[in-house]
């Protein structure tokens, strides 16, 4: 089973490619300034509806801002938060999982009990509490979502290392005087990287949804920064009359999360073909 043979995964990768292009080239692709207010054109419907115009293909919001431009610019924050949180959580989780699984003993017990304590708290509520303490801000959101997501990486890496540390090549490396740090870096880490990539892919989707939830509640990225979550919050009052204000950012959020999850499932099948055949 490969990603190339999985048509659904190819479609998901195409959606992600469009998302990356939109995020990187937002100034070139957006038809208008996402913060530009045009009160005379407020709540203008999409181009295919009566009263709409090609100047605003997806309509405008309550302040006359172009919805398409705001959706395109919102992809930048979503990708930055998702990838940043996944990288931070992946590094912290991989280091803790390698150390706990390889050394065992009291370091393993302390780290895993700390992980169990964190898992006892709902991740979104924990993120809300930390953001409320640190304050809103892009990097605070990345830090919080990275901190709340390291446990999944650590537990998976630890379980893999527990089985790998008894292999012959690890025993031989120890017998020849290779340091523990070198063994973890050269022999154990490469074997857990496929699992880390799969978890990171799924974590990116979870972080994007979490960021949108925080922004929806007004506790995420500052209000002046365009995010899909803040667009949903702004558009909820107009669902009955101007549905496009909330539907299009919600649709972008849904398609992005779905595409990332499908890609993560495909990566899991590639990393573990036996599990796919079962």
From TrEMBL:
CDD domains found in the cross-reference section: TM_PBP2
SUPFAM superfamilies: MetI-like (SSF161098)
Subcellular location: Cell membrane
InterPro entries (UniProt xref): BP-dependent_transpt_permease (IPR050366), MetI-like (IPR000515), MetI-like_sf (IPR035906), OppC_N (IPR025966)
GO biological process assignments: transmembrane transport
Keywords on record: Cell membrane, Membrane, Transmembrane, Transmembrane helix, Transport
Pfam families: BPD_transp_1, OppC_N
An annotated GO cellular component: plasma membrane
Oxidoreductase in keyword set: no
Transmembrane portions of the chain: 77-102, 114-133, 139-157, 192-217, 237-260
PROSITE patterns given in the database record: ABC_TM1 (PS50928)
Membrane topology: Multi-pass membrane protein
Keyword Coiled coil included in the entry's annotation: no
Sequence similarity: Belongs to the binding-protein-dependent transport system permease family.
PANTHER family: D,D-DIPEPTIDE TRANSPORT SYSTEM PERMEASE PROTEIN DDPC-RELATED (PTHR43386:SF1), OLIGOPEPTIDE TRANSPORT SYSTEM PERMEASE PROTEIN APPC (PTHR43386)
Protein name according to UniProt: Oligopeptide transport system permease protein AppC
Annotated source species: Streptomyces malaysiensis
Upper classification of the organism: Bacteria, Bacillati, Actinomycetota, Actinomycetes, Kitasatosporales
